[in-house]
Design brief:
The chain is mostly helical. It folds into two domains: about 140 residues, no CATH class; about 90 residues, no CATH class. It has ten helices and two strands. Strands 1-2 form a two-stranded antiparallel sheet. β1 and β2 form a beta hairpin. α1 packs across α3. It is globular, with a radius of gyration of 19 Å. It starts with a strand and ends with a helix. About 30% of the residues are buried.
Length: about 220
């Protein structure tokens, strides 16, 4: 069916930039992009208000990066759940990461306030994508690890382009493995050393999970 989203507008509200797959967008996709834009213009402020009402988000809008709090796992997990619901509605959970990045770009450029936006640190390091990925895990597991450790993990080149890392971590959760923030950071460091120069896209899931399991066991041994 394809996907299209408006990511920039002129001050008067007219479309400046639109991303689509396929490109150029068909008239049907163009209409869908406008419908999505109208939906996001309503839904994203609603999400912020829901987080404010839940006492997870400050009602005050920060005026600069220095005035922003770092946030915490509870906040970003809750935001991620809502962003994931939007992706599910738009059929983006099983589509390419590229298309989700277009959606995050649209939200950051047009629809979100400074309450939930964070400084851009490059194309691949995306705050909304991190929230989305965090929300895949049960909150009881997620909150065992500080947000800074989650960012360190998701920032790592070895996992930020490798979506199967989330699937492996879900298996770890189901095994009820004991974990804390220090162990998680050490695992990330060890994983980076092990596969920093390896193109994991050529590996089968079993091969990749075998590497993760070995690094995890070595990390656990170091903490025993």
């Amino acid at each position: 069916m394809g996907f299209a989203v408006i990511i920039e507008k002129y001050p008067g509200g007219n479309v400046k930039t639109e991303r689509s797959d396929p490109f150029p967008p068909t008239p049907q996709l163009d209409a869908k992009a406008k419908t999505l834009d109208a939906y996001l213009s309503k839904r994203i402020p609603e999400i912020e208000q829901e987080l404010i009402n839940s006492k997870l988000l400050d009602e005050r809008i920060p005026l600069s990066e220095r005035q922003k709090s770092g946030g915490n796992v509870l906040l970003w997990h809750a935001l991620g759940q809502r962003l994931r619901a939007i992706c599910e509605e738009q059929g983006l959970t099983d589509r390419s990461l590229r298309e989700r990045r277009w959606l995050w770009e649209a939200i950051a450029n047009i629809h979100a306030s400074e309450r939930i936006k964070r400084a851009r640190r490059g194309r691949a390091r995306n705050h909304f994508e991190y929230c989305y990925r965090l929300s895949k895990f049960p909150i009881e597991f997620a909150k065992q690890i500080n947000w800074s450790e989650w960012v360190y993990f998701l920032d790592s080149r070895t996992v930020r382009e490798e979506q199967r890392a989330d699937e492996w971590l879900t298996v770890l959760v189901k095994r009820h493995e004991p974990i804390n923030r220090r162990m998680f950071r050490a695992f990330t460091q060890n994983l980076n050393k092990r596969i920093q120069n390896l193109d994991t896209s050529v590996l089968t899931k079993d091969e990749l999970f075998g590497i993760y399991d070995k690094v995890w066991q070595e990390t656990k041994t170091g903490f025993s």
